[in-house]
Amino acid sequence: QVQLVESGGGLVQAGGSLRLSCGASGRTFREYAMGWFRQAPGAEREFVAHITWSGRFPNYSDSVKGRFAISIDHAKNTVYLQMNSLKPEDTAVYYCALKEGELYAWLRDNRRSYDYWGQGTQVTVSS
After folding, report:
1. What one-character-per-residue DSSP string does 42-109 give?
2. Which of 14, 20, 70, 96 would you label with 55, given CA atoms 20 to 30 Å apart?
3. pLDDT tens-digit profile of 15-71?
């Protein structure tokens, strides 16, 4: 059974930074993709960032592009989300997700494309 565990959330002032981590355990995959999503109270879960297993071709939602960076460390089975220049509207529970195998580009921002999810970590940005 695959387990994803997020950490690194917390309370930060607007303009500050946080780095989220997501550790994967339970199985190894020859090919996979990792995504970060977030969900604010009363809102749908929305795509934030995605990266392939190779670490190439990261992509982001327009709302975080230029401020957030996703990366992957295979040695540690961990994916990171570096969040800079945080805004109050970034406040949400952040979830990491894993898609086993290939993930077509047009599906990477669809939460239904992913097979496994973490429990989430709260990020709160104060104004």
Report:
1. TS--EEEEEEETTS---EE-TTTTTTEEEEEEGGGTEEEEEE-S--GGG-EEEEEEEEES---GGGTT
2. 14
3. 999 999 999 998 877 788 999 999 999 999 999 999 998 888 899 999 999 999 999
pLDDT at 105 over 90: no
Phi, psi of 60 (to 5 degrees): -140, 155
Look at residue 97 in the predicted model and tell me its pLDDT: 97
Structure tokens at 94: 């952040």
Count of other CB atoms within 10 angstroms of residue 20: 25
- Euclidean distance between CA atoms 29 and 59, whole angstroms: 21
